[in-house]
Structures are given as structure tokens and as C-alpha cells.
Amino acid sequence: MQEVLDYFDNVVYNDLPAHLIYIPEMRLINRVDIFDIHLNYAIFSHRWLREGEPTFADMQNPAAKTGPGFEKLAKFCEKARAYNCIFAWSDTCCIDKNSSAELDEAIRSMFKWYRDAFICIVHLATSSSLDDLYNDPWFTRGWTLQELLAPEEIKFYGEKWISLPTNLDDKGPDQDAYHQHTLRTIATKMSWAAMRRTTRIEDTAYSLMGIFDVSLTIAYGEGERAFFRLLQAVRHQPSRHADQGVASWVRFYSP
Questions:
Q1: Which residues contact 175 (CB under 8 A, 6 or more apart)?
Q2: Residue 87 forms beta bridges with which residues?
């Protein structure tokens, strides 16, 4: 019995996000209160609004659950329910950013959480048809690269939450050049990353940790030093192509 309990604790504390949205009640639940380690959760990928996104604190206050940001979150949860998920995760409100430990864990673990999600639901706020798809700013941002690469299954919705492709899963092996990203060379991944931008300069590095399977200390305020620490970590990987990959970043990247 103790072995079962130990296994349960190991999964809860190491595989699940610290907080999830319990969709039927639109409230946050702490992972220590999870009763089923085999749960399916949906995960959200989107570009943040300039203001009005629901925060961790807002989710504790029913009066704050209004406005365009919460409406977007509610639509995401509605789509998640269509995939039979009763739990969901969003980077806007499922991280207690007043806790440096929780924020640090989220940044380090985000690639894994996207990879382990049952479905990644993407909202492309400026796209209304397939013709708009690859011109959407979502495809230019740093953090969304891992949100494209990591999930096993992904679904794109447009501006009015209309399904863009008609597939249940828009990430079939023949539909996406990124699908088998683990088989791609370091140089190829570097070239993908070089075309994307982040608001915080440090996030250029932090958003790539999962893609390159490296770990960095999170230290906002260090500026471009984060990028050079990433290069060092990638260079020390046991791959004969690592140095070539780092050179490719230098060739493509323009800070």
C-alpha cells in the first residue's frame, strides 16, 4: 500500500502542474487535491491580451471573472470539455507568480506539461481562415514554439473560435514539418527559434530549455547572459553536432 501511495505522490508532485482549472466549476485546484493521477488535461496556447488576462488571484475572486480575458479562458475550457477533459491549464492564471519557486518550476516544466497534455488548444486571435494561419503573430513568438513542438495533439481555432482545419488533431505526422522535432538537428531547431521573438530578452533562452533538453537557472534581469548560458548548455550536450548547432544560432539570430 505504501508503494502505491509513494508512486501516487511521485506522479502528482513531478508530472502535474501545481494548479489546474477544474472546468465544471471554473475554479483552480491544487495538485495535492488531485484524486486521479491518470487524468486528462487540456492546455492552452495563445497570445496574451495587452491587459485583462485573468490572473491567479482573479480565479479566487468570483467578481473578477469577467472581461475579454476571462471570456477567452471560458471558450478554451468549453473546447477542452469537447475533448472530454475536466481539467485544464493556462499560463495566465494557473501559476502563482507571487511564488518565485512556483514560477521557476513552471518555466522549467512547461515543455513537459505541454507534451503530457491530452490536447493543446491554440487560439489564433488574428486568423479567420486557413489562408491567415501562418501569418498569425502566434507563429512569430518565442514561447509558442515549444507549445507547437511539445504536444502530441494540437487543435487550432481562429478569431471567433471556429475550427480552422477540420481535423480533430491538427498535428498529424504528414501535416506538420515540426512533428518529429526530436529527430531534427540542433541546427534546424536553432533556425526555427531564430525567427521568433520574446518580450523579455531572457525568455529567448528560457523558452528553449525544453526544446533542447537543457536546464538553466532562472534569473530575470541577467539580459543576454541567459542566451549565452543556453549556448553553453547546448554545446555541452553529448552530440557531435552541438557546436554546429550553436554556430547556426549565431548565424541566424539577430538580438
A1: 165, 167
A2: 22, 41
Give tens-digit pLDDT for 138-191. 999 999 999 999 999 999 999 999 998 877 778 865 544 444 555 567 878 888
DSSP labels, the chain: -HHHHHHHHHHHHHHS-SEEEEGGGTEEEEGGG---TT--EEEEE-PPPSS----TTGGG-GGG--HHHHHHHHHHHHHHHHTT-SEEE-TTTSS-TT-HHHHHHHHHHHHHHHHHSSEEEEE-TT-SSGGGGGGSGGGGBSHHHHHHHS-SSEEEE-TTS-BSSS-S-S--TTT-TTTTGGGS-HHHHHHHHHT-B-SSTTHHHHTTHHHHT------TT-TTHHHHHHHHHHHTSS-TTHHHHHHHHHHH---
3-state secondary structure 139-196: HHECHHHHHHHCCCCEEEECCCCCECCCCCCCCCCCCCCCCCHHHCCHHHHHHHHHCC
pLDDT in tens, 63-97: 888 899 999 999 999 999 999 999 999 999 999 99
Specify burial of residue 91 (Cβ count, 10 A radius: 0-12, 13-18, 19+). Answer: buried
* Closest to 84 in 3D by CA, of 168, 163, 15, 7: 168
Phi and psi (nearest 5°) for 204? -55, -40
Tell whether the torsion through CA atoms of 70, 75, 80 and 81 is positive or negative: positive
Tell me the whole-structure pTM to 2 decimals.
Answer: 0.88
CA 107, CA 118: separation in Å to the nearest integer? 20
